[in-house]
Amino acid sequence: MSLKCHRSKSVWAALGVLVLCWLYIFPAYRMPSDKEIVEEVLRQGQTWSKNQTGIDLYRKLLTECCDPKKMFAVTKENSPIGKTLWYDGEFYHYHTVTNETYPFFVQDTPLQLPLKKCSVVGNGGVLKNSGCGKDIDQADFVMRCNLPPLSKKYTDDVGTRTQLVTANPSIIEKSFQNLLWSRKAFVESMKAYGSSYIYMPAFSMKPGTEPSLRAYHTLADTASNQTVLFANPDFLKNVGRFWKSRGVHGKRLSTGLFLVSLALGLCEEVTAYGFWPFSVGLDERPVSHHYYDNILPSSGFHAMPEEFLQLWHLHKSGTLRLRVGRGEGGGGG
């Protein structure tokens, strides 16, 4: 009996030493509070100086892990008939490319690379009354998230130009009834984005595949001048791993961070707007969640403050420019 107790104490002592060593080597990381992050942004200021070495390094890192130039979209080149596309958002689900789905894919990456100056526009309420619209539109390539409203009342703050916009299948479901009944409202709403690329994660979650394919058919049937691109699930999965290794621990990256990652891999210079996940701005005034509404997302799905910290570090290193204040071109991002 005493021998067993002695062994038990020895085991627990060894485990205790192991835990102490682990904490010494890997100290617990405490995420700063929202207030601390805002204060840090105010303290450091928004001055920015382009760092070509940092830009080249991140492009190299993203090319090695995710190869955005070749893999950001599903194409006939990277996804021939018979290829298995594993859903990045659902384990054990996959789609096998068939004669039916293969024609939906573009032949190869359709973008003229490298892109020069890119604006990546999030939908944060920080854009409201920012006057960033002119600055956003001055970029060579403008990326937007989740079919945002671009009506005249928002133009001064968010601009009008779009070269690529994401369309989550959940938006097709909620706003357009999965395109099962009427397609007119969808076609009309898409006109706001001009002759842009519509970037859809058709192979992230199985329920999103059919709505995405219906969106493709709808635009094709109406002779739209827009091109539907399906996000490559391998690219999305690898980008998620890339940021998780850097401290972003949400269940899934936000669409905005996916687009920033894409831009860092494809563009010579990136400026991000509308990324501010806090309820108070730098002027200590309340900030709505989106520039067009204040509907909050499900808690715990995205790690928005962690994502913002990553973007802020990239800003301070000169790798991308993050605009969280008033715009330059319009006196007001």
Describe, in plain words, how this protein is organized in 3D.
- By secondary structure, the chain is an alpha/beta fold.
- The chain has helices at 2-25, 34-44, 52-66, 68-71, 133-137, 155-158, 169-176, 184-190, 209-221, 233-244, 255-266, 304-316; strands at residues 84-86, 94-96, 115-121, 141-144, 164-166, 197-200, 227-230, 267-273, 321-323.
- It folds into 2 domains: 1-30; 32-323, sialyltransferase cstii, chain A (Alpha-Beta Complex), CATH 3.90.1480.
- The protein contains 12 helices and 9 strands.
- The strands form 2 sheets. It has a 7-stranded parallel beta sheet, with helices on both faces. Strands 1-2 form a two-stranded antiparallel ribbon.
- Strand 8 (267-273), helix 12 and strand 9 form a beta-alpha-beta unit.
- Helix 3 (52-66) packs across helix 11 (255-266).
- The longest helix is centred in the N-terminal third of the chain and has 24 residues, at 2-25.
- The radius of gyration is 22 Å and the shape is globular.
- The protein starts with a helix and ends in a 10-residue tail after the last strand.
